[in-house]
Amino acid sequence: MLKLNYEYVISESKFKNINAIYFSLQEELCSNGVSDYDILKSEFIKFIRYIVNSKIAVIEFRTWVDIHEQLDNSDLETQLSYIYKSFPTEYDENVPEKDIDNLWWYTECPVDVGWLKDDGEYWFS
Questions:
Q1: What is the mean pLDDT of the chain?
Q2: Cα separation values, 78 from 19, 20, 86, 115, 120, Å
Q3: N or C: which end of the chain has fewer CB within 10 A?
Q4: How is the beta sheet containing 122-124 ordered, strand by strand?
Q5: Res. 2 pLDDT band, cuts 50 70 90
Q6: Across residues 117-125, what is the average pLDDT?
Q7: What is d(CA 108, CA 105) in angstroms, rounded to the nearest whole number?
Q8: CATH number of 6-120
Q9: What is the mean pLDDT of residues 49-60?
Q10: For residue range 94-118, what is the model confidence (pLDDT) as tens digits?
Q11: Axis crossing angle, helix 6-13 with helix 18-31, rounded to the nearest 10
C-alpha cells in the first residue's frame, strides 16, 4: 500500500494554486517509485478528500463550469467524481485541454482550492 506524506504535500502547496497540490503529490509519488498518471489522479482525489474532510481547505467550482452552483451544493463524492472525470485522458503540451503539466490547470480545471487561514476564513489564490 502506498504511504504518502500528506504533511509534506500540505507544506508545499498550502496557499498556492490547486496545481501545486498535484505537483507536490507527483513529487511524492516519484520519490516512492511511482510515475503512473492514473495513480497520480487517484491520489490527487484522495488528497482533496482528505483536506476537505479535515477542514484544512475547501473546494469551489469555477463559475464557467455550467453546473457550478449545483456542484458547489452537492456532496463531496459527487464533486470529486466530477473533478476526476475532468482530467485529460492524454497529454499534449500544445493543446491546453490536454496540458496537465501547465495550461490545463488554468483553462480546464473545474475547481479552485481555498485554504483555511488562522482567522477561520478560507483563502483562494
A1: 97
A2: 20, 23, 12, 21, 25
A3: N
A4: 57-61, 111-116, 122-124
A5: confident
A6: 96
A7: 6
A8: 1.10.3510
A9: 98
A10: 999 999 999 999 999 999 999 999 9
A11: 140
In contact, 105 and 18? CB cutoff 8 Å: yes
**Of the candidates 80, 59, 50, which has an alpha carbon nearest to the alpha carbon of residue 124?**
59
d(CA 15, CA 8): 14
Threshold 0.90, pTM exceeds: yes
Provide the residue type at 11 as one letter: S
Residue linked to cell 509519488: 29
Instruction: Measure the CA–CA gap between 101 and 107, rounded to whole angstroms.
Output: 12
Per-residue DSSP letter, 4: -
The cell numbers describing 44, all together, are 490527487
Amino acid at 34: V
Question: Would you tell me how many other CB atoms lie within 10 Å of the CB of residue 43?
Answer: 20
